[in-house]
Amino acid sequence: MKEDMNNIPAIDGGRPVRDTKIFYGHQYLDEADYQAVLDVLKSDYLTCGPKIEELEDRLCRLTGAGHAVSVSNGTAALHIACLAAGVGPGDEVITTPITFAASANCALYCGAKPVFADINDKTYEIDPDSVESCITEKTKAVVAVDYTGQSADLRALRKICDARGLILITDGAHSIGTFYEGKPTGSIADMTTFSFHPVKTVTAGEGGAVMTDSDEMYKRLMLFGRHGITRNPDWMENPPDGPWYYEQVELGYNYRMTDMQAALLISQLDKLEMFKARRKEIVKRYNEAFSRIPQVMVQEEIPESDTTRHLYILRIRPETLRIGRKEFFEALEAENICCNVHYIPTYYFPYYQKLGYKKGLCPKAEKLYEEIISLPLYYGMSDKDVGDVIAAVEKIAAYYAEKI
Questions:
Q1: With contact defined as beta carbons under 8 Å apart, do 176 and 185 qualify?
Q2: pLDDT at 15
Q3: Strand, helix or coil at 69?
Q4: The whole model's pTM is what?
């Protein structure tokens, strides 16, 4: 029987493993980042300026994609990707429930229906077999999520989508810097979206982008992200009246990124290799330590994915412990290790329940949710910080181990 504890103190009432709190994620900024933003503030352009084009060119060179469209955040990126894919009322879009809500909401924004496929219970990524079982005559697109930074099984998903005439969108909010079969995230799906929120590997404060190789998709992404307005004569329906002339040719949105955000992100991208290396060091140390603890499990990685992790997921084994995930989480907090849970299955939310979604849709995803904790993982963690996280997990797992 699990122990009924509303607030577990540090074990045995003793001292926690550390005296100060460490959080699950945190941005890293340096003088180059500050100066990049300051330079823009002193320039003529705060938005719609040269830093946008510079950033988009940089993202193309980084990912190998033909085009990049910068936007205000990762949710905006997903929205215009669905619009560019032609998603509309009556359509269905397949995604995973183990993701931030935006991966499904983007379908709703277009009047379409999100359909949830289950996950692989070892890698926690969307399961291609489950995706295939969800396809109907109404399916328009698949939004696969590179959960934690590990690539989804893009070869299998690409094969399914090509055979059924579906658009493959990768939600790469977690995976900038990741490679799949030697190719960077952003260059494989029909469209890949990025998020640059502060807890991601690189940040623009907020911000996002959509990558694509398709000229037609690029045109639609540009229009939907910028009011549906163009100054490009090739995209206009009428001859220009003069150099001032522009046309609205679609109903678009104001999803523009500012030059200040773009400048910050360009500076952050200068440090991407450094960020990647440190995150991989921490993940390697975690994996080695936690693989020796029978009360927990680590996320498996497919060999095709050279992963830069945004999140580190620890999965407890409830059958080996006298406490559940909630109590394990609280015990970590008592040790000053502040964690999170990624994610609550999207269809659990009241809004989705009101739309008719019910629990039980994706059994593997639901079981995963009951057992996972996101541990601290970010560039600025010291070796001592990493050691403290490991020590706290070891301490709690040992103390609450079920005597079998």
A1: yes
A2: 87
A3: strand
A4: 0.96
